[in-house]
Specification:
The protein is built from eight helices and 13 strands. By secondary structure, the chain is α+β, with helices and mostly antiparallel strands. The chain folds into two domains: about 130 residues, Elongation Factor Tu (Ef-tu), domain 3, CATH 2.40.30; about 100 residues, YaeB-like fold (2-Layer Sandwich). The strands form three sheets. The protein has a six-stranded antiparallel sheet with strand order 1-2-7-6-3-8, with no helix packed on it. Strands 9-13-12-11-10 form a five-stranded mixed sheet. A two-stranded antiparallel ribbon has the order 4-5. The relative contact order is 0.19. Keywords: S-adenosyl-L-methionine.
């Protein structure tokens, strides 16, 4: 019988069969975790392409998938979990039994009652819209995956057995207004700046025009992508005036202990006004502010300097 470590290695080897989100193979608009939709289909314009390695997976294996509107994607939480500690017996590390839940304002819930990426077996399941199948490539939308996510398998979505009409969920799951913002607006010069950036990124993106990118930005920022700890800070009282949104909000929400959270809250009650957030999206650095009433103003956009070499082209 295989050990746990050997079984995990076998699972990871499957990532070579259906190639992971890699350069010119599987691309998505998010190169980092923050800002990636927390659940599938929340941002309909969130595009991705999944390219199969034809030397491992025959093109014929995709025949018929284009007749389905949606598909399931089985993948690995490769960035959000301390995989080495969980699977290395020398660390003797245990997974967190409870995690912080954004909809509970940071309140804790048992990990198996949540969709947290911090799980004893870090496997994720999501659904996406099938836009097209082109040879060995699948074009998808409504995705909630980070660029580079190892994909294990895909399966067609079957409404007659995958949708449970009488399903019920806890009340806290239904509190959508906890994560929505009041409004999203753009500064006077934003569209012009976005058009200038588009000239540089035109052949390196999954989006067809600056207008479509503008709609994507609005869809992403229509949800409050900040972590629980950021939302709980008194507005306009941060240590620094800039916050790089490439930090992982899921890690901050789900994996910090209460002592760290309390300490961070006290530290935040220092001094600074006018907090500016930065969202890295499609190779762009987008700066925005959000006031205490949940009104977002998107101020500027520049070409991001944090694009990994492997992701310069989509």
């Amino acid at each position: 019988m295989k050990s746990a470590e050997e079984s995990y290695a076998s699972v990871c080897s499957l990532c070579n069969i259906i190639d992971s989100v890699r350069t010119l193979e599987f691309s998505t608009y998010h190169l980092c975790r923050n800002g990636t939709p927390r659940q599938p289909l929340l941002v309909p314009l969130a595009k991705a392409s999944l390219v199969f390695d034809p030397s491992r997976v025959p093109v014929a294996s995709l025949e018929g998938l284009e007749e389905y509107s949606h598909c399931w994607i089985l993948y690995v939480f490769h960035l959000n979990t301390d995989l080495d500690k969980l699977w290395n017996p020398h660390f003797n590390s245990k997974f967190k039994a409870k995690v912080r839940v954004p909809r509970l304002k940071g309140g804790r819930m048992g990990v198996f009652a949540t969709r947290s990426p911090h799980r004893p077996c870090p496997i994720g399941l999501t659904v996406a819209k099938v836009e097209a199948v082109q040879g060995n490539k699948i074009l998808l939308s409504g995705v909630d995956l980070v660029d580079g996510t190892p994909v294990l398998d895909i399966k067609p979505y079957l409404p007659y057995c995958d949708s449970v009409q009488e399903a019920t969920v806890p009340k806290w799951v239904m509190v959508d207004n906890m994560l929505t913002v009041t409004s999203v607006s753009f500064s006077d010069g934003f569209s012009s700046a976005l058009s200038d950036c588009w000239q540089t990124r035109e052949n390196k993106t999954l989006y067809e025009s600056p207008d479509e990118l503008l709609s994507l930005i609005k869809q992403v920022l229509s949800w409050d992508i900040r972590s629980v700890s950021q939302r709980n800070r008194p507005h306009g009282s941060l240590v620094t005036g800039n916050y790089e949104a490439s930090q992982n909000s899921l890690d901050l929400d789900d994996y910090q202990d209460e002592e760290a959270s309390d300490s961070e809250t006290e530290q935040a009650r220092s001094s600074c006004k006018d907090l500016v957030y930065h969202l890295n999206l499609e190779g762009l650095d987008i700066s925005y502010r959000i006031d205490s009433n949940g009104n977002v103003v998107v101020e500027d956009v520049t070409i991001s300097s944090n694009i990994p070499n492997g992701n310069q082209n989509h």
